[in-house]
Amino acid sequence: MKLVQNSGSDRVIDLLLPHLAPGSRLGCITPSFSLHAFAELREALNGLEQVQLVLPADNDSLELLGGEGDRAQRNRLQARWLANQCAQWLAQKAEVRRVHGRVPQGAAVLTGASDEPDQAVLGSFALSSEGLGLAPGNPLNLIQASESRDEARTLARWFNQQWSMLRSQPDGIQSLIEALKGMAAHRPPFEVYALILHHLLGNRDEALDEDRIVKAATGIRNTIIWKKLFKFQRDGVVGAIDKLARFGGCIIADSVGLGKTFEALAIIKYHELRNDRVLVLAPKRLRDNWTLYKANDRRNILAADRLNYDVLNHTDLSRDGGQSGDIDLAHVNWGNYDLVVIDESHNFRNKKSPKQGSETRYHRLMRKIIREGVKTRVLMLSATPVNNRLSDLRNQIAFATEGDDTALQDHGIDSIEQTTRKAQIQFNRWLDLPEEERNPGRLVEMLGFDYFTLLDHLTIARSRKHIERYYGTEETGRFPERLTPINIKADVDTAGQFRAIREINLEIRRLNLASYAPMRYVLPHKADAYDAKYSTEIRGGESIFRQADREESLIHLLRVNVLKRMESAVSSFALTIQRQLKDVETTLTRIEEHAADAGEMEELEISDVDIDDPAFEQLLVGRKVKVLLSDVDLHRWKQDLIEDRNRLDNLLKAAQQVDATRDAKLARLREVIERKCREPINQVGGRANRKVIIFTAFSDTAEYLYAQLAPWAKQTLGLDSGLVTGTAGIQSTLPGLRKSMSSVLSAFAPRSKERPAELAEEGEIELLIATDCISEGQNLQDCDWLINYDIHWNPVRIIQRFGRVDRIGSPNQSVQLVNFWPNMELEEYIGLEQRVSGRMVLLDVSATGEENLIEQQSGNPMNDLEYRRKQLLKLQDTVIDIEDLSSGVSITDLTLTDFRIDLAQFMKEHPGLLEETPLGTYAVTSTIDADIPAGIVFCLRAEGAAAAKGEASDYPLAPIYLVHVGDDGAVLLPYPQAKRIMDRLKRVALGRELPDDGACARFDRQTRQGDDMRHAQKLLAAAIASVVGKAEERAVASLFSPGGTHAMKGEFAGANDFEVLAFMVILPSGLSPQGGST
Description:
Helices cover 40% and strands 14% of the residues. By secondary structure, the chain is of the alpha/beta class. The strands form eight sheets. Strands 16, 17, 24, 25, 26, 27, 28 and 29 form an eight-stranded mixed beta sheet that branches. A seven-stranded mixed beta sheet has the order 1-7-6-5-2-3-4.
C-alpha cells in the first residue's frame, strides 16, 4: 500500500480515472457525495457496468453541493442540471445501501472487465471535490492506495463483506433520487423571493409573525377595532407592536386615506389589554377624533371595546395648570404613561425656545413623559413625505430612543446623529443635481443604507399604490376613479368695478405695515439693548436671529396673507383690511397719548423693565415683543402709519362695495353646486349622491359662504348644510342637531362614520363648508365632490383635503375635485406671490405655532415657489398622490416591513422549507413591466477576506448583497439600492406560487436544461464586480474561463469570496432570452 498526498499529480482522482473504463464496476463507501465530484467523473461513470454505493443514512450529511472549496464550482450555476444528470445516472447504474450511523472513512474498489480488482483506495476521502483532490483538503488526512492486485483483492473482499452485511434497501436510492429531482426541479418565483428575504432578513430581526408578536391571550383578536381592520392595517399594527416592543418607538406614516387612526386605536387597545396606561397627544383641532372613541356615546362605533386612554392637546405641554377636557393639568402624573401616541408628530421640532431659559413642548415631552417614571413607548402618527430637513425625523426618532444616540448600535447604526447628518449632506447634494437626474432611486443610492435601515427599524409607511399592488382590493374595495379636476377662474365683481388682482397686489406691496414692526423704528443708539433682550441664538450659537429680522419676516407673511385673503373671498379681504386698519388707529392713538405725557416720564432702559408688570403698560407698545415708546423714532413711525391708514382705507372702501349680490366667485360656486345636483356622478344605495364639501383656508370665508349658501341651498335645492371651522365654529340647518364637530360630520357622512340607525332621525347634511381643521384624520367618503374655494399655498394640503373623499373602500365609483383659481395665468399669480414675499422663503407655520427660525435660510423645496408652481400646474390636470408631491423620496420607499410580513407568512405556511433549500436555488419568471428590465437578480453572501475588505461600513445588510444585472451585463441596480431590487422581486413574484411553465420552458431551451449557463455566469461576474469594484473584474471573469474550476483557494480576489445564495432569472415576456453562448 502507498500513501496518497491527494494534491498536485498525486490525487485520488488520478488513481481512479484510468480504471473507470467502459464495462468496469465500482464499489464505493463514501461519507459524502458531491455533485461537483460527480461532474468531474460523469463521462467515465456513465460508461461503467455497475456501481455499488454505501452512503450515510441521512441525505443532509451527503453535502451534495460540496463545501467551502466548491464555491467556484457552485458559482458556475449548473447545480440544477447536475442534479438531474446525477439522478438519471443513479437510476440507470447504481445500487445504494445505507449505513445506520456515520461513515467514518471512504473506500473505493475498481474492478475491470476481467472481474479482477484493479485498484483500491482507502482512508480519509470521499466522492467530493476535497476527497478527489480537486480542492485543497486537510493535510492530516491519511489515504492509502493498493500497489498490487493482491492488495486490491484484500480490500475488495472487505468491501464485499460490508456490502453483504447491509440489506438491500430500495428506499435508499429512491430517497436520494427524489432529493436530486427536487434540486433539479424549477422553483416557484414566490418561493425564491421568500428565500432571498430569508437570507436578507431571517437572521437580523425576527420576521413579522403575528402569532409571535401579538399575544393571543390578551384577547385583542376578539375586539371590535381588530375586526374592523383590513389585512394591510393588521399587518401595520403587528409591525408597530413589534417595533414598540423592540425599539421603544414606531412612526406610522401611512399615506392619506389609509386609516392611521384606526391602526393606532388597535395598538392602544392591545396595550390597554396588557394593563398599560396610555396617553394620546393630538393637535387641538383633531382632539374630537380621539375623544369620541373613548366616550359612552351612541356615535362611538368602538364603545364595546371600552377604550380608556387620556387625551391632551399638543399645546397642553406648554401649560402648568388649568383643565384640558376632564384632566387637571396641575396634577397629571406625566411619568406614569406606558404608551404615548402622538398624532401629527411631525409638528414637534427640537428647537431652542425664543425665550431664553424657557422650555419648548419638544423638550418637555422628552423630559416629563418619556424620560421620567416608567419606561414609555412612543407611537407617532406622521405625514408621509420625507421632509428635506432630515433632522425633523431624527427628532421624532429621539422620542423612541429617549434621546440615546447609540440606542440602535446593535442593529448596525453606531450613531443616529451621524447617520442623519451624513444623510442630510447627501440629500443636499442630490438637491443640487440637474432635474432629470433628481429621482428617488438616485437619492436612495446616495443616502446610504444606514439611513435606510434607521428608518426601516422605526417606521411603517405604505402608500395607496403600495396597497393596490401588494394587497389587492378584493377585501378593501377599490379606490374610486379620480376624474380630471375641474378648474374655475372666477372674477371678483359681477359689475367689473373692482380693480384687477395685480393692481391690488401693487397696493399691498406698498404697505409699510408699520404697526407690526416697532423694532424697525427703534432709535439707533438703543438698538443694542433690544438685540440683547430679544435676539435668539440659532445653530447652536453659530449665528443670531435678531428680533428686527423676525419682524420683517412677519411683515412678508402678512402681505402674503392679505393677498391670499383677496384670492379667497372679497369679504375676507375686507375683514382683514378692517383689522389692520384698527391696529393702525390703535398704534397712532398710543403715540398721541405718549406725546401728551412725554414731559412727565423718567428715562428708562428696556433692560430694566419687567415687560409683564402692569405698571409699565402705558410706556410700552407691541404684542409679545414690547418696545418703550421713548426709545422709538415716533415722527418717522407716525408718518408710515398715516401712509398705511390712507392705503388701507382706500382698499377697504373698494372691497366693501362688492357685497354678496356682486360677488362673481360666489355666483360661480352656486352654479357648480347646482350642476352637481342636476348631474350627479354616482348613485349610492339607489339614489343620486348630491353631497359636496367646500374647503377654504380661512374661517371668515367659510362663515361668509355658509351665510350665503345655506338658505339658498335649502330653498333652491332642498339641501341641508353644515359649517365646521373648529370647535367653536359649528353650525347646521338641521334643527335638532347638536352643534359639535362629530355630530355635524356624522350627519354629513353617516355611512363612513357608522352612525347608529336610531340617530337617522337627526337628518342628513349634504353641503358641508369647512376649513382645514378637518383636512386630516376624517373619513368622509360618503361624499364624492370636493371643492377647493381657495388654493392652499402647500400642495400637500390640497391632496390631504381630497383624501377625505378619495379613500379605500369608497361607495362611489368616481370622485371629483374642483379648484377655484385666481382669474389670471398661474405663472403670473405665482409671480405676484414671489414679488409680495420678496426673497423670503415662506415660514413654516406648523401647528406648533412656533416660527421656524432656521428654515428661512435653508430654502425648503416644499415652500419654494418654483416647486409649488410645478405641483400646482400638475394639479390642474390630475389628482396626484401625496408621495408624488414629495420633493425627495417618500418614507414608503424606505421601509422593509411588508417584506418581513411576506417572509413570516410564507414560513408559517411552509415550515422548514426555506431552511432546507440548497444554495444557489433559482426561479425563472417573466416580466411585462417596463420598470423591470430582463436580467438576473443575484443574492450574494460575502465569505472571504477580500470581500470583507470591500464591505461598506454604512451598508447594514452586509454580508448579503442584492444586485440586479441586465441581460446585456450592465448593472441595473447596484447593492445600495437593495430596497428597489426587493420591490422588483416582489412584483415579478407576487401571485406566482407555481413555477412559471412558459418562462421555464424558454429558459431550458436556451440553456440546454441548465447546462449552458455561460450567459448567467457572465451576469454573475458583473454582479460580483459591482460589489468588489472594477479592479477585480478581470479576476472575477477568470472564474469562468477554461481550467478555472481547478483553481486554488485565494486565486481569485473576489469571485471565490462570494456565495450565490439564490437568484431570480427575469425574462422579457413572450420573447426569447439572450443566447447562452456569449
